[in-house]
Write a structure and sequence with these properties.
heterodimer, A: alpha+beta, Arc Repressor Mutant, subunit A, B: 202 residues, mainly alpha, 2 domains, 3-stranded antiparallel β-sheet, 7 helices, 3 strands, elongated
């Protein structure tokens, strides 16, 4: 691979990381929509459902910030696993925020889709 | 190696994280460590051999980095409910040791609030201690380019030439409030910047 192509691949990689980070907050809140989950479950669902892989040590500070913002609530539960787990669930303001973020995301994505439509044929 | 050895290894890792969590209150330190411990035990799924524990710990990151991100995010999250100058200064102090920018923000804040306090105190005391409070300039007499400025309240009348006289009261009040406000805004900006950097490093 030439230097130019490698630079382009690097830039593309950085752009993909930024796009995923931009959607991370919404993804975490959306994963909690059906019900409460603990940290590792959230990480696994982020990876399996949205293809988002983030360093494990950083999910808890993110959840902590969401808790400070009143978007999620947390409680320790004595689990069958033999150790306590901290479960997170959406609060009412958190649910309202997910709805607003989803509407905003949809509008953004639809606009982008329209722009990308002419390029679709060229790619295939 | 036994499972006890694996758990001892986990405890050793958490002790190292603990050492870098100095910027957090005790309750948040306990919460952070309990959450990390629970995460590792979930990750190994009951197999607490040293090798499995080591692999799970490696996924979390180095103790210093895990602590830095946790402290920064948790301190910055407080901006949602607290914005007073005292709280912002306290938050800056808590983040001072975590990065070069944190130290820079701390030094600027100390200098800014210190200067603001000096101006305000001088303005407040001036009416009651006319010759002891003010802003003076003093030349060494031999070289007019060498001069020293003194601001504040002295225990005896200053030997230098007073620059502002009665004007130190409005100017001191104005400058003190402006410097305090600018330092507070700088502190808010710095906390948000450090929060963004912590999230960017994810």
């Amino acid at each position: 691979m030439s230097v130019d192509r490698r630079d382009m691949a690097d830039e593309l990689g950085k752009w993909e990381v930024q796009v995923r980070k931009g959607g991370l907050g919404l993804a975490v809140l959306a994963i909690l929509w059906p019900g409460r989950l603990y940290g590792l479950e959230i990480l696994r669902q982020l990876e399996s459902q949205a293809g988002m892989s983030i360093p494990e040590g950083t999910i808890y500070p993110l959840l902590s910030r969401m808790k400070a913002e009143g978007l999620v609530d947390a409680e320790w539960v004595e689990a069958d696993a033999g150790h306590p787990r901290k479960y997170y669930r959406l609060t009412d303001p958190g649910r309202a925020r997910v709805r607003e973020m989803t509407q905003s995301w949809r509008a953004f994505a639809q606009g982008l889709e329209r722009l990308l439509a002419p390029i679709e044929g060229d790619i295939s | 190696m036994s499972n006890d050895a694996g758990l001892a290894h986990l405890d050793c890792y958490l002790d190292q994280v603990h050492r870098h969590l100095g910027g957090l209150p005790d309750a948040e330190v306990r919460e952070t460590l309990a959450e990390l411990r629970s995460h590792v035990l979930d990750k190994v799924g009951g197999d607490t051999t040293p090798a499995r524990i080591e692999a799970a710990i490696a996924e979390l990151g180095s103790p210093r980095e895990v602590a830095r991100v946790n402290v920064t995010e948790r301190v910055v999250a407080g901006l949602e409910t607290h914005r007073s100058p005292l709280w912002v200064l306290h938050a800056i102090v808590r983040l001072a040791g975590l990065s070069a920018y944190g130290l820079f923000a701390f030094l600027v804040s100390v200098l800014g609030y210190g200067s603001a306090a000096a101006f305000l105190a001088t303005a407040a005391v001036k009416p009651f201690a006319w010759r002891q409070a003010g802003l003076w300039v003093q030349s060494d007499g031999r070289n007019s380019y060498v001069a020293s400025l003194a601001l504040g309240v002295m225990d005896r009348p200053h030997a230098g030439r007073e620059l502002l006289g009665v004007w130190i009261i409005p100017i001191g009040l104005g400058l003190g409030l402006l410097l305090g406000w600018l330092t507070w805004r700088f502190g808010l900006f710095s906390l948000r910047l450090m929060g963004r950097r912590a999230r960017r490093d994810r």
